[in-house]
Amino acid sequence: MAEATYYRKGFGLKAAIEGQLASDYHSRLIEVIRSRGYSLRAGPLTFRLAREFGFCYGVDRAVEYAYEARAKFPDRRLFLAGEIIHNPHVNAKLEAMGIGFLERGSGAEGQGGRGFNFGGVTAEDVVILPAFWVTIHDFEALRGTGCIMVDTTCGSVLNVWKRVESYARDGFTAIIHGKHWHEETKATASQVLKHPGGRYLVVLNMEEARLVCEWIERGEEGELAARFATAMSPGFDFHTDLERVGLANQTTMLSSESLAIAEEVRRSMVRRWGEAADQHVRSFDTICSATQERQDAVLQLLADPPPPDVMMVVGGYNSSNTAHLVQLGTSRGVRTYHLEDASCVEVETGALRHRPIGGTEEIAEREWLTGVSTIGITAGASTPNNKIGETIVRVSAIAGCSDELQAAVL
């Protein structure tokens, strides 16, 4: 019997890897805080935890599947097509297990350039596809190597693919609210191109969406072609490809903005086509439920008394869903810090390393804890619980209340 080369439903090895997963990612401190109403006081500090945070179902599944793959193929070379998820701690754990990381090439997309370099992959190797998948071009190139593929794609991402594929089949251009450089959006956009005549346009925010809406209503192209040069399908024609559109989004975007963009486009279509607008626009909510729940939980934490003096959001700097949690805190006037890892809380110096919204460099702040009594904490969907717990432990050490924290947990 020929060996299977494509796996998507697991290996049935959960029992074999449960202990290692718990050791690598579990936090007793977080479980205690959950059991006490998501709030814990230690000395002068009160830590308030958002009611939804950290690993979502899709991330849980992807990480578990990677661990199972290592157990299933102990004697084979294992590789990841990029990062399994956007969290440096998790990716470092996988690297320590002997899983290598395949890098992207250089040059033009779709010609071996910005796609992955699979030159060293053989039929004897195992390659894990990340939770946000890869482009169709990369998938076909990988399949051509004859290697074993382990697909961990998140179900919420698959739902978006179904939506944009239906648009392409029916002759609608997919307008995707997302980051055109993000792995998930690249993969989603590539699904559109599976269909003859498939078209897509990626808008980053409401500002870009309104530029598109101005074209829909007035036909004034201006600098649109240059603005979206790297965010639209090959051969995109603003004169014809915006007559019928369907809305979708990168699952980790700010949900309120995705819905607002969809409504803005719909209103422009009504102004352009009047009563016939329903034949020219389709709009479906493709927000991931876990993304929505984590955003709602932050808003609830900020609304419930006592309000936090500061918010701490733990997660990879390249994690889209984490960045949007930071954005929510900041938009509500709360001093909000984005930490890539618990180690950003420097116990020895008392400094906090973080990256501001829109920034590209980490900065260190030393007096950040002065006058603070209540700290709100949440984490992106790719952040394990032990890193959230470790953050609390390190903050307590800086505040001089480690003993009180330990006593509160006992």
Helix content: 40-55%
User: And the CATH topology of the largest domain?
Assistant: Cobalt-precorrin-4 Transmethylase, domain 1
> Residue ranges: pLDDT <50 for 5 or more in a row?
107-113
State the domain count.
Answer: 3
Cα-to-Cα separation, first versus last residue: 55 Å
Beta content comes to: 15-25%
- Decide which structural class fits the backbone: alpha/beta
State the CATH superfamily name of the largest domain. Answer: 4-hydroxy-3-methylbut-2-enyl diphosphate reductase, catalytic domain
Mind telling me the C-alpha Rg?
23 Å
Strands across the major sheet, in which order?
Answer: 1-7-6-4-5
The major beta sheet can be summarized as:
5 strands, parallel
| Mean pLDDT over all positions | 93
* Helix-strand topology string: EHHEEHEHEEHEHEHEHHEHEHEHEEEEHH
Report the strand count.
Answer: 16
The CATH level-2 architecture of the largest domain is identified as: 3-Layer(aba) Sandwich
Tally of DSSP helical segments: 14
User: What would the principal axes of the Cα set say about the shape?
Assistant: globular
